[in-house]
Amino acid sequence: MREFVAVLTPDAAVLPENGRSVATLLLSRPPTNTLTRQACREITEAAAELGTRDDVVAVIVYGGHEIFSAGEDMPELQTLSADEAATAARVCADAVAALAALPKPTVAAITGYALGAGLTLALAADWRVSGDNAKFGATEILAGLPPAGGGATRLAAAVGESKARDMVFSGRFVDAREALELGLIDQMVAPDGVYDAALTWASRFLEYPPEALSAAKASFG
After folding, report:
1. How many structural domains does the chain have?
2. Residue 60's closest CA among 153, 183, 221, 197?
3. Looking at the whole model, is its pTM more than 0.70?
4. What's its catalytic activity (predicted)?
5. Is residue 217 in a domain?
6. To which H or E segment does residue 202 belong?
């Protein structure tokens, strides 16, 4: 039984004739959806489950109406030994890699904040939709840490190396408008419309052959 991550799919009665659906990988660790070791393990498990679901064509990654994720759980990290912290970093990286490897189109629906490892998790999705009041940041440097889960590399792939270095070295926050200009997000909408916009984006793929979509995603490496 997962404690912090759920996989949600539509009721069978509302599915299209082909039986395909868009699933939601829901982060639920209020109030800030910080990524503990357990939460990361559950993300890895949920991504693996979704990868095997023939009825699921695309996946939305969502943190709820208030916040996507504020990143790694700093109070937990501060209690860990050096070996435990290394394990926690690996578990976080595994969660990011599992989402990135999911063989279906993925859309991150971002509300509130996507910071640190939370931003890296969002960058593991194929596309990102956010509210116009959302804030983004590679904030690990503010805690004296490097970006988690390959965050610097993923950020550079999205916004270019120079802009990524600026964000990583400074830990500064980026608002939604700048994020759109940088290419960090793909669509900016009103805060209340984030999930619906992500669903519209993901639903475009319902009529496509799942095998073709998987092969198309794999072609990007």
Report:
1. 1
2. 197
3. yes
4. a 4-saturated-(3S)-3-hydroxyacyl-CoA = a (3E)-enoyl-CoA + H2O; a (3S)-3-hydroxyacyl-CoA = a (2E)-enoyl-CoA + H2O
5. no
6. helix 194-203
